[in-house]
Amino acid sequence: MNLLPDTHVLLWWADEQKISSEAFEAIADPDNIVYVSAASIWEISIKRASGKLKVDDAIFDVRIDDFEPLSISHDDARLAGSLPDHHRDPFDRMLVAQALAHDLVLVTRDSQLGLYGANILPA
What we know:
Elements (H helix, E strand, L loop, with lengths): L1 E4 L1 H8 L6 H8 L4 E5 H12 L18 E3 L3 H9 L7 H12 L3 E4 L11 E3 L1
Parallel strand pairs: 1-2, 1-4, 2-3, 4-5
Helix pairs in contact: 4-5
């Protein structure tokens, strides 16, 4: 299974906070590939710079957990911009677009993201 954790799931994982057992097992399973979107790194960077989030630099090295970085392509950006207006957060819209475009399972607690038809694994 190819997974794409939402930004909050990535932060909870890094901070060893509680996520659903199903999501934890899927992320920890070495047979699954876990991708981290550049959108999540961007969102974390913005919140950290504004003082809304306190994390150390290790959060930016996704390979520590054997995760794979996922860049944002022009096609991803175009799809994110054309999605219906179910959700206004541009970072979440990008994650949905990438999940749809790259056939990834989006790991999230945000039930609104399921409205886009992406495959969701509840966190």
